[in-house]
């Protein structure tokens, strides 16, 4: 069965390349000055726009993006949700699959879209620079194919962003120096605009004109750095048809929940009286003990020949409404048998139980003191706090390809935490005390090519419980089950959905709870797994998979491109 799967994949890839287009873009990354919230602010952007350019392509196409870094910062770009099958050098996370593109240098990303269809996006993978370096990547069905739902009148991009009245590189630097939480953002944006709820922004609200009696598809992307969000459109029901570029059974809902890194495609039927209706985002704040930007943002949907002068505002959920968030996340099911559907692999080769959460780090040369809430923050997975291998001369993928990983990373990431305890209990005990301070390391888990991996992702409450979006590079995965409390195999395995589970690339693990995911490691390379809250990767909430080469060169990591950036 496994041989059949990856052999068919190779044949499909070869066929698609013979009948597909090349979609080529040039990205000039440079600093520009923009007016937001009553002031001019210098930001780093692509081609002078915020958000950056939208890439429009079809399933099976090949995308080529020439990146010229004219900014003062070293950086890389990631194509979020693209599997990068046999193109791992284009995945993008700095020091993992490549060294950063130095200021004044360039690099060309090349990747194929076979098996991809739906809404994805791209962003900087250089920490806080993704606040302004991001854009949409829309993959439509190939010519002659159609969506598995009725034809829509128009597709509308809805990109949620986060805005700072500050240089975001300095925001990150100050947080790193203090080893604490970063400065809160000043606004959320829709398609780069903060909306009329903010000062000096009456003309800075995203608006879209619609016709009554039509069906529109909203392609929703959460490009914010640190907050999940609820989304509603006043007086309209939304129908979810896809998540993370994977089709779903139709799910009607009044509210959508989307975590940083995730995408949701919904159908909006303009069946209300002619008027103006706000669409609005409000943060989902799963951990009240942690301070976040609690502001909303909103845009306008205006019916043609609208008669209502005052827009209708939706009744938004409470920001701590975990039951509503959990209901949305767990009620969605995959479109079994639909386009690009992959059945759940039933035999499991690798069982992993991965705890993760926020803790503290050792107080070395820290000016803030080392007691109580002043202790510097850290994060970990299975009590290992991940460190990017800066200053090693090569990326992790280069080290793996060259066969010499000494001094870059080690292959001993544990399958389980070192001790078992009451993971979601915030009260410190002798068992959890050691978990408060996790050692810094750069560890990977090595996987045999085509092995099937099942991971229980278990939140911990060492400092506080929080809903964490976990992104897996290089793979889509099935979400078999989710729940609250500590995972219990006897109780929870009977809940596994093997028939039509969600397929995702970013899973929002419930606050004080767990999720079980499963995937087939059929993509050789080094693949980062991390929390998509931007504060948490620098703190260490990450690990990586090293997937071994397959049985032939056709299923092996190819040589690095000639223009791969040097460290």
Detailed description of the structure:
Its EC number is 1.10.3.2. GO terms for molecular function: copper ion binding; hydroquinone:oxygen oxidoreductase activity. There is one protein chain. The protein has 567 residues and is mainly beta. The protein has three domains: 22-140, Immunoglobulin-like (Sandwich); 154-331, Cupredoxins -  blue copper proteins (Immunoglobulin-like, Sandwich), CATH 2.60.40; 350-364 and 373-555, Cupredoxins -  blue copper proteins (Immunoglobulin-like). Helices cover 10% and strands 37% of the residues. It contains seven helices and 32 strands. The strands form seven sheets. It has a six-stranded mixed sheet with strand order 10-9-12-17-14-15, with no helix packed on it. The longest helix has 17 residues, at 2-18. It is globular.
Count of folded domains:
3
Distance linking N and C termini:
41 Å
Name the shape in a single word. globular
Please list the strands of the largest sheet in the order they lie side by side.
Answer: 10-9-12-17-14-15
Radius of gyration equals: 23 Å
Tell me the strand percentage band: 35-45%
Number of helices: 7
Main sheet attributes: strand count, strand direction, barrel closure:
6 strands, mixed
**Share in helix:** 10-25%
- CATH topology (level 3) name of the largest domain: Immunoglobulin-like
Q: Which runs of at least 5 residues are low in confidence (pLDDT < 50)?
A: 3-8
Mean pLDDT: 91
Family: Belongs to the multicopper oxidase family.
Protein name: Laccase
Cofactor: Cu cation
GO molecular function, one term: hydroquinone:oxygen oxidoreductase activity
